[in-house]
Amino acid sequence: MPARVGIPGTLLYYLYFPVWETFFRNIGAEVVTSGKTNKKALDYGVKEALADACVPIKLYFGHVLNLIEKGVDYLFVPRVVCLNGETTYCPKFLGLPDMIRHVLTDLPPLIDVRMDVREGTGALYRAYSEAGRALGAKWPAVAQAYGKAILAGRRFFALLQAGYQPPEALEIFKNKSAVQKSPGHFHRNKTELVFAILGYPYLIHDQFVSVGLLNKLSKMGIKAVTAENLPAKPLARQPHILDKRLFWTFSDLAYKATQFLLQRGGVDGIIHLTAFGCGPDAMLDKFMEMLVKERSSIPFMSLTVDEHSGEAGMTTRLEAFADMVRRKKGAAA
Amino acid sequence: MPVITFPHVAEAQRALKMLMNDLGNEVIMPPRPSKRTLDLGVKYAPEFACFPVKILLGTYLETCPQGVELIVTSGGVGPCRAGHYAQLHKKILRSLGYSVDIIVFEPPRLYPLDLLLNVKKLNPRRLSYRSVYECVRRAWRKIQALDNLEKLSHRVRPRELSRGATTRVYRQGVEWVDHAYSLKEILEAEAAALEALQKVPQDPEREVLRVGIVGEIYVLLEPASNLEMEETLGNLGVEVERSMFLTGWTRDNTWAETVENITVREAALPYLPELLGGHGRESVGNTIIYAKRGFDGVIQLAPFTCIPEIVARTILPRVAKDYDLPVLTFFLDEQTGKAGMTTRLEAFVDLLRYRKKQAKSPKMAVNI
Ligand code: SF4
Ligand code: SF4
Q1: Which class is domain A4-161?
Q2: d(CA B271, CA B291)
Q3: What is the rounded distance in angstroms from the CA atom of residue B222 to the CA atom of residue A232?
């Protein structure tokens, strides 16, 4: 029987699941995910993690508990430190395996390899081969699986660049379906406005925590652009305009995406989605707001979600914002 | 002559003022953080900014109207928010119409050139590097003297015979050190103040609990931010030992300090192998070291939403269990009230007393 490896369906899942899944599948393991976030995952997480953590971390605990319930043999909880050679992930990502290990009991073995490309060439490969070894895979198989995983990652990334949102791209990846639907097939209606939705992918693309933000927008006839859809190279090449660059990968990315969009234009409004209790966002949100104000007249709104966010509140705020944008656009035209 | 100010950190600003004056700057002293400071900070800082960001901003908003041109502060190297305080503060202050600049001293080990450049900006008298060095050394020694006084007050207070005596003598000692200028005077003032503290009437028989304090540096160092928790504990008959002092911490940052043959890093390793920025790993490591040294309990102090301390907080219950050591955490923000804190502290101290008694009784049984 192949070993069953559990991959929690949140945080980096939205960007790296295809890589991880391909790798484990190719070394002969069976990959189990915790599925979409639901009320249970949230309640679980709230109980097990602590009251002071941000919602996404609580949710991660919920997803891990779901996997434990499913009886997986291993849990893949990598310690992802740095993948671009420049910025690191939020300190909570860095301490993730430790939090899981020391808070939860009766855990299956953790595969908590450390991924930090700053350790030199081959660091990533070493991390994966360590994960492979934990499952008893030998090197030729590991090397081959790694190669396939990297390719899967590239294909997935290309989908994002083509305009698909991560959940759509994951759907395509999972069903191995040929790319038939056009990007943003959610957006059936004629779109009149384009909003940039910036923030962490595990918030924006989690229908449950974001209270269906992207769907709502699409129903309102608004096209959403996320940082994942923006051309990667120009984004990375944005000049550092803060005295000190933001240390954290996703925060840095959101800031650069703001810079990029202000320069390129093409969006009518910018929404920053942030999680209640998020440390980095306290800074990021203010920096983004000031940047938008300084450099443009594009309306900016930050939306905070927490475990109690309700449909109604979200809809009201979105509608009010959209109205304001429309009025502004009308006045300008 | 540039008009400068800096954050309020316990008593250290007294030494900083001396240093800045020596170098020929005019100094506007930061007031002790008060309700007004907090209100100002809360009003203009982002809602979820960490507590220190709010206190510092509030402090600057109190001093800037007095004509401050330059703020001197220290940075922190990622991955934590401390490194971004300064630019956030600058942006907010500028948006409010204060044309101030902020100089950030980074840990000299990582940015040696910065240090020299910064010193240049703060040295309008153009003192030679040698004399600058002398001034810095003197100021440093003054901070050490202040730290030593504070450390001793933590030992004396739980044993004092009349409540408040230690605090009175301590405050007086701080003034003595403050007025000392030359190195010789500083040493004399320190010795006299330490002696006066020793002489506070004490009860040597009193059973005193020992509690270690760990957590984020600013709320550890600035009593106004932790509602004078150490004094409260002292009054409850607890001798506190704090894991960080301005002088002690800066040393840690420069070379690994060993305690009882293991470094804080090594102690934390089995629980938190990753460096998180801030002082999350130190909180875990120091808790373990306190446990090994036989302390009765540990208190973790952290600003609300503090990232590394939340990670530490998640792990500490396991450490507490493994080492059988009670750990209490306070997440502080502008809404933390003194009464509530005191109640929790009293309950914690009761628990520690009870445990201590329990631990003793079996031994007595053997003796009989
Ligand atoms: S970036 Fe914010 S939301 Fe994400 S894990 Fe860190 S604190 Fe939580
Ligand atoms: S260590 Fe805590 S208080 Fe300090 S910057 Fe980081 S989050 Fe803020």
Answers
A1: alpha beta
A2: 14
A3: 44
Report the residue of B95, B300, B305, B330 to disrupt the A interface, i.e. the one with the largest count of A CBs within 10 Å: B305
Question: For A2, phi and psi rounded to 5 degrees?
Answer: -65, 150
SS3 B325: coil
Q: Which residues of A touch B86 (CB under 8 A)?
A: 243-244
Q: Which bound ligand lies closest to the C-alpha atom of A306? A: 1
ipTM of the complex: 0.86
Is the per-residue pLDDT at A240 higher than 90?
no
Instruction: Please check whether residues B160 and B112 belong to one and the same domain.
Output: no
Write out pLDDT tens, residues B154-183: 999 999 999 999 999 999 999 999 999 999
Interface list for A 138-197 with B (CB within 8 A):
none
CA separation for the pair A202, A190 (Å, rounded):
27
- Residues in CB range of A85: below 8 A, 6 or more apart: A117, A118
| B99 CB neighbour count, 10 Å cutoff | 9
Instruction: Give the long-range contacts of residues B342-351, CB within 8 A, separation 24 or more.
Output: B342/B232, B345/B229, B345/B232, B345/B233, B345/B236, B346/B236, B348/B297, B348/B299, B349/B209, B349/B233, B349/B236, B349/B237, B349/B238, B351/B297, B351/B326
Determine how many CB atoms are found less than 10 A away from the CB of residue A310.
9
pLDDT at A30: 96
CATH architecture designation of domain A187-332: 3-Layer(aba) Sandwich (3.40)
| The model scores a pTM over 0.80 | yes
